[in-house]
Amino acid sequence: MPETTSRTALRKGSGGYYRDMYAAAAPSRAGEPAWLTRLRAEAMDRFDALGFPLPSDEEWRFTPIGPIAETLFEAAPSEPVPAHDHPVLQSYAERPAARLVIVNGRYAPSLSSPPDPEAGVRIASLSTGSETDLELVERYLGGLATGGPSLTSLNTALLSDCTVVRLHAGARISTPIEIVYVSAGSAEPHVAFPRLLVVADAGSEATIIETFAAADAVSYWTNAVAELAVGDNAAIHHYRLQHESPSAYHTGRTAVRLGRGSRYVSHVVHTGSAIARHDLGAVLSGEGGSCTFNGLYLGRERQIVDNHTVIDHAVPHCESHELYKGILNDRAHGVFNGKVFVRQDAQKTDAKQSNHTLLLSEAAHVDTKPQLEIFADDVRCTHGATIGRLDADALFYLRSRGIALEDARSVLVHAFASEVIDMMAVPAVRSRVEEIMLAALPKPSSVFGE
User: Fold this and answer.
1) Do 397 and 410 touch, CB atoms closer than 8 A?
2) How far is Cα 243 from Cα 424, in angstroms, rounded to an integer?
3) Apex CA 381: angle with CA 377 and CA 387, to 5°?
4) Residue 319 backbone phi and psi in degrees, to 5
5) Bridge partner residues of 247 (DSSP)
6) Burial profile 373-397: b = 16 or more Cβ within 10 angstroms, e = fewer
7) Cα(328)–Cα(243) distance, rounded to whole angstroms?
8) Which of 50, 321, 332, 449 could bridge to 299 as Cys pair (CB 3.0-4.6 Å)?
9) What is the DSSP string of 145-203?
10) Cα(358)–Cα(241) distance, rounded to whole angstroms?
């Protein structure tokens, strides 16, 4: 059994355990820039001061952080690398613009393929970047994902590497840029801290696919952070696909800042890990910007899937659209907490938010809380949530046509999810999500309306 700590120690970062991990990694940081050393130290101090979130923290009251906080995870090993043909490394594009594989939080060049130098995109990392790359990282790292959960600070303090994607002004990348995070190796519980920085210069456009998966069915914790700066009139289509091991834990944060006339479209899919928590936030800081959040989460057995989103309308004439759908079976627990802020000067805002959940068993449940905080008076804003089960009449109709119960259920569940899936513009992503969804469908014994 893993070692545990007291409740008081959890508030203080597992009683100094992660401070010790930070100190033990000091030799590996000997050559890093002074600004990064200072940033790490400040982040470690913040985590020490805050510790892990507790159930008494309003934003975490439905997320049982105890199993993560009480397990003393080891630092992820650096040696294990999966084979090139490992199923977890499957691609979503026949020839992606670039493909980066991050194993246990560290860039794996032997499994990666860099972009064409003429493509208008630069891929780098802290471990391989030039002086110019490091200047970009210094400018942005930690500048977008400020405040928020203490786990963000823990990532900053203990990250082993940072993947950097720079889109040059006017570059239009027609095929996806793939980033695959793989957990592999140690039989002991281990933790990795992947970090992504995307800087899209003015007028650029690209599709970025982040995939989180496991090469081995081991117990581990992924604590990931991504920061995206979307410049004026730039567009980023961002897929975040979490398909981790059923025995894993996943916490993540994505922080986005949009410039004038820019566009950001997010597709978040959760199908794996025992506990999954993702915080997604975007600040519309330039007029004419638009932001779209689409999400689909599947929960079964005793999985916990928690999505927290924040869209901050800081300036006038921007729009946002948000649609999250959940499918929960067995004793799964879903959480959706979505906030839309409309600042006092953000007139002519158009914001729509909705969350819909399909419960496939008596024991599955969801806590949903869509929120609007509006301080402007010339806006169009709506929000809402629904929780339901498979339509008994529709199920009866399909069965009366000779369709087996399991097939009828699959048709209705697929129809429920299709609104989100159909908005995914990458065909291979749509196919993969549908494949996982169908494989995860419950047996008839636990379905409403039998």
Assistant:
1) no
2) 17
3) 145
4) -135, 155
5) none
6) ebebeebebebebebebbeeeebee
7) 16
8) 332
9) S-SS-HHHHHHHHH-S--EEEEEPTT-B--S-EEEEEEE---SS-EEE--EEEEEE-TT
10) 20
pLDDT by residue for the chain (450 residues), tens only, comes to 344 444 554 555 566 899 999 999 999 888 889 999 999 999 999 999 999 998 888 899 999 999 999 999 999 887 667 777 788 888 888 789 999 999 999 888 889 998 987 789 999 888 777 778 889 999 999 999 998 889 999 999 999 999 999 999 999 999 999 999 998 877 789 999 999 999 999 999 999 999 999 877 678 999 999 999 999 999 999 999 999 999 999 999 999 999 999 999 999 999 989 999 999 999 999 999 999 999 999 999 999 999 999 999 999 999 999 999 999 999 999 999 999 999 999 999 999 999 999 999 999 999 999 999 999 999 999 999 999 998 888 888 888 988 888 888 888 998 999 999 999 999 999 999 988 887 776 544 344 444
Burial of 102 (0-12, 13-18, 19+ CB in 10 A): buried
Crossing angle of helices 405-421 and 392-400, in 10° steps, is 120
Judged by DSSP in three states, 28 sits in helix
Nearest Cα neighbor of 299 from 325, 322, 337, 281 is: 325
Which helix or strand (DSSP H or E) is residue 24 part of? Answer: helix 17-24
Distance (Å, whole) CA 87 – CA 66: 32
Three-class DSSP labels, 276-314: EEEEEEEEECCCCCEEEEEEEEEECCCCEEEEEEEEEEC
18: its two tokens: 């992660």
Helix 34-50 and helix 150-158, axial crossing angle in degrees, nearest 10: 140
Q: What is the pTM of this model?
A: 0.93
Tokens of 392: 């008994």
Query: Tokens at residue 378, please?
Result: 């010339």
At 53, list the tokens. Answer: 């979130």
Alpha-carbon span 236 to 196, nearest angstrom:
14
Q: Are strands 319-328 and 290-299 parallel, antiparallel or unpaired?
A: parallel
Q: Which two tokens stand for residue 85?
A: 């043909």
Q: CA distances (Å), 70 to each of 5, 113, 189, in order? A: 6, 38, 12
CA atoms within 13 A on the CB side of 210: 28
Residues 6 or more apart from 139 whose CB is under 8 A from it? none
Backbone angles phi, psi at 274, to 5 degrees: -70, -40
The candidate with the shortest Cα–Cα distance to 431, out of 92, 70, 192, 76, is 92
Tell me the residue type at 251. Answer: T
Other beta carbons within 10 Å of 187 = 8
Report the alpha-carbon distance of residue 45 to residue 295 in Å, rounded: 34
| 18 Cβ neighbours under 8 A, 6+ residues apart | 44, 47, 154, 157, 158
